[in-house]
Design a protein that fits this description.
It is a single chain. The chain is an alpha/beta fold and 367 residues long. The strands form 3 sheets. It has a 6-stranded parallel beta sheet with strand order 10-9-11-8-7-12. The protein has a 4-stranded parallel beta sheet with strand order 5-4-3-6, with helices on both faces. 40% of the residues are buried. Helices cover 46% and strands 16% of the residues.
């Protein structure tokens, strides 16, 4: 079986590598037409996709944080359709003159945007990424090699099969998208295929990202795990703050930009119960430091309140209905904490002080 996986993986990588030449021959109009065809066909195959997704979901515990990431619904497929249509409407990034100049001998030199080539994406139980990666790679003239997880294999396979069928009907080489086996061996082959793959992008847990970073011989663009913070400043509006904290924590707890740590200025500790009040309806567990837990005691359900500390809990990406609450002296200490702990993903400040906001934006390293 291992030999079969190796053969399948190598054949798919070769097919993707060969397809880059056919993709380069397409016009921007052909690419956009194909993207719109993919978007419009999603509705026709909605039942097939949902059914395949249901078979994957049956194998996963509903309490697993990945369950929500894995799940596709009619509404989510509508959002995916709209996203692909939006990508099709964007101007082509291929062939743009970025810079040019004339040498002393009269030679004109231009710097032009071109595709990277073959891009390998390694990701976990997130089938929406299958659509996203194909659309962005195809739009920018790049072939994509997808290495998803076993958890989402049935969903990913039906999606890739549908996309390939649409491309074939558009007389486009369907090998511009290839789904590799979900086995670990396929990843090992992908990240060492230096003669066929131009770039690898891991999307997922810190463990996955570190494994790819440490072992890949192909250039890697590293994404970050999402340990995300919100700082409530001494001038913050409590009503606005409560809504932001609740939305950023509970809207979708399994996404990488969900809130993990609320930092509160020590001068506003008395407002902490009001800031966290909306979280009770979602049964959010608060892991609070000594100052915060003392203020919350009696105002927040005992069964949802746990004593914690920066040393023990600050590096946790919860991906669940739980979050930290830590006390800081001022905006400078909040920034220091974020830049020390955070994964440089998504950070925010709640303040009415323009100077504090400007300082936060300038000093915090986040995407």
């Amino acid at each position: 079986m291992e030999e079969d996986i190796k053969t399948i993986t190598l054949n798919k990588i070769q097919a993707a590598h060969d397809a880059i030449f056919d993709l380069n021959a397409l016009s921007g109009e052909q690419i956009d037409t194909a993207l719109r065809a993919v978007a419009s066909t999603i509705k026709n195959h909605e039942k097939e996709i949902i059914d395949a997704n249901a078979s994957d979901l049956q194998k996963m515990d509903a309490s697993d944080y990945r369950y929500d990431r894995l799940k596709l619904t009619n509404s989510r497929l509508d959002d995916i359709k709209s996203s692909i249509e939006s990508i099709a409407m964007l101007p082509s990034p291929i062939g743009n003159i970025l810079d040019w100049g004339v040498r002393s001998n009269g030679m004109v030199i231009r710097r032009v945007s071109v595709p990277l080539g073959v891009i390998g994406i390694i990701y976990e139980a997130r089938p929406n990424v299958t659509f996203d990666v194909f659309s962005l790679c195809f739009k920018s003239g790049n072939v994509c090699l997808l290495k998803g997880s076993k958890d989402a294999f049935n969903t990913n396979k039906i999606v890739v099969d549908i996309i390939k069928d649409i491309l074939s009907k558009q007389e486009i080489n369907p090998n511009v998208i290839e789904l590799l086996p979900p086995d670990h061996e396929a990843m090992d082959i992908l990240i060492t295929a230096t003669d066929k793959v131009d770039l690898v992008i891991p999307r997922g847990s810190s463990g996955l990202i570190q494994a790819v970073r440490n072992n890949s011989k192909v250039p890697v663009i590293e994404t970050g795990a999402g340990i995300c913070h919100t700082y409530f400043d001494k001038s913050g509006d409590v009503k606005i703050g409560a809504q932001i904290v609740n939305n950023s924590k509970t809207r979708r707890v399994s996404v990488c930009n969900a809130l993990d740590t609320l930092l509160i200025n020590e001068e506003r500790l008395n407002d902490l119960p009001a800031l966290c009040d909306m979280l009770v309806d979602s049964n959010v567990k608060l892991i609070a430091d000594s100052h915060a837990s003392e203020v919350l005691k009696g105002h927040y359900p005992d069964e949802l309140l746990q004593r914690g500390s920066v040393e023990q809990d600050a590096h946790t990406e919860y991906l669940s209905y739980a979050m930290n609450v830590f006390t800081v002296k001022n905006v400078a200490e909040a920034v220091k904490h974020i830049n020390t702990i955070a994964s440089r993903h998504s950070e925010s400040i709640i303040t009415e002080d323009a100077k504090a906001a400007a300082y936060f934006q300038k000093q915090v390293d986040a995407s």
